[in-house]
Write a structure and sequence with these properties.
The chain is of the alpha/beta class. The chain folds into three domains: about 110 residues, Rossmann fold, CATH 3.40.50; about 80 residues, Luciferase, Domain 3 (Luciferase, domain 3, Roll); about 120 residues, ANL, C-terminal domain (GMP Synthetase, Chain A, domain 3), CATH 3.30.300. It is about 25% helix and about 20% strand. The strands form five sheets. It has a four-stranded parallel beta sheet with strand order 1-2-3-4. Strands 8-9-10-11 form a four-stranded antiparallel beta sheet.
């Protein structure tokens, strides 16, 4: 097994050390980035050590997406059975790209720190089900997942946006309380959906006719544009479909006319070909989600603010876009990125 996470993170010590050893597996511990000495380092390790299972993160795949695709076909990956990805939402374009590149099953899953293990997944060791790019899968055994209207608490059918919730009792391994404050635990997690005692994930999603869930983002990432509720994740996924987009983050900012407006920050694959990229991204959103979801601006940037574990710090992006102090950014890997983005925004205003 080859897990690319840093050993200090939960995925690192769980899936580099404890998990493989508990199951009698050989495991690889690799210190370094996916680009050093070149973008083929991971795949060379798969070939050299005959890796059968690999575990990484969507952010790492997006990094590789910007590199020479020849590295993905240079090495023998015949022993690799599947690539598992976790840690943040896996958008459909990224999942489709890496699947087409390495020709292996791409296994997503969805969980929270509070649950301790996946709520939504394709459990290949139990039953091999079809994968749907953009979806982490179906409810895992022990989780009675519901999709509820956040205003009426009514259970929703397929293709309806709602809050993802879990009917109790939660299965073993899940958070049982907040230390020394049972009342806070109940009020925070179990009493936020009107008229129901049900665990809220605080995530916004939809499900299809086959019971597959699709995560649209945190409920506090849902923006209200002229009375229409839009998930920033679905706008990001739409823009990610543009062939010259390597990575994108969307946030909602205050808008005097519409209430809120979506603003996108895009890292291009080819930085020499961006003259019309903003307009093209807007056109892409128009064609997939409709004009109401079109971002007010699309800023072309060289990097996005991320934590050391690779998660985008969207609140900081929102603060900079609104001209506010981003607050505590001590967990950010490169704190200079916000300054660069602020300069880009200021220059666009002057232009």
């Amino acid at each position: 097994m080859f897990t690319t996470s840093d050993i200090g993170w939960v995925v690192g010590h769980s899936y580099i050390i404890y998990g493989p050893l508990l199951n009698g597996m050989a495991t690889i511990m690799y210190e370094g980035t996916p680009l050093s000495p070149d973008a083929g380092i991971w795949w060379s390790l798969v070939e050299k050590y005959k890796v059968s299972v690999m575990f990484s993160a969507p952010t790492a795949v997006r990094v590789l997406k910007k590199q020479d695709p020849a590295f993905l076909t240079k090495y023998d990956l015949s022993t690799l059975r599947a690539l598992f990805l976790a840690g943040e939402p896996l958008d459909e374009p990224t999942a489709s790209w890496i699947h087409d590149a390495i020709k292996k099953p791409i296994v997503d899953n969805y969980w929270q720190t509070e649950t301790g293990w996946p709520m939504l997944a394709i459990q290949r060791g139990v039953e091999v089900m079809p994968h749907k790019f953009g979806s982490p899968g179906v409810p895992s055994f022990g989780y009675n997942m519901k999709l509820l209207d956040d205003a009426t608490s009514e259970e929703l059918g397929s293709d309806k946006k709602g809050v993802i919730a879990i009917e109790g009792p939660l299965p073993p391994g899940c958070m049982q309380t907040v230390w020394g404050d049972d009342k806070r635990f109940v009020s925070t997690y179990w009493e936020t959906i009107p008229g129901k005692t049900i665990y809220s994930t605080f995530d916004w999603g939809i499900k299809d006719d086959d019971g597959y869930f699709f995560i649209l983002g945190r409920t506090d990432d849902v923006i209200n544009v002229a009375g229409h509720r839009l998930g920033t994740r679905e706008i990001e996924e739409s823009i990610s479909g543009h062939p010259n987009v390597s990575e994108v983050a969307v946030v909602g900012i205050e808008d005097k006319l519409k209430g809120q407006a979506a603003i996108a920050f895009v890292i291009p694959k080819d930085s020499s070909n961006t003259a019309t990229l903003e307009a093209e991204c807007m056109k892409t959103v128009d064609s997939t989600l409709g004009a109401i979801a079109r971002p007010g601006r699309v800023y072309i940037v060289t990097a996005l603010p991320k934590t050391r574990s690779g998660k985008i710090v969207r609140r900081a992006l929102q603060a900079v876009a609104e001209g506010r102090d981003p607050g505590d950014i001590s967990t950010m890997e490169d704190q200079t990125v916000l300054g660069q983005i602020k300069t880009i925004i200021e220059q666009s205003v002057k232009a």
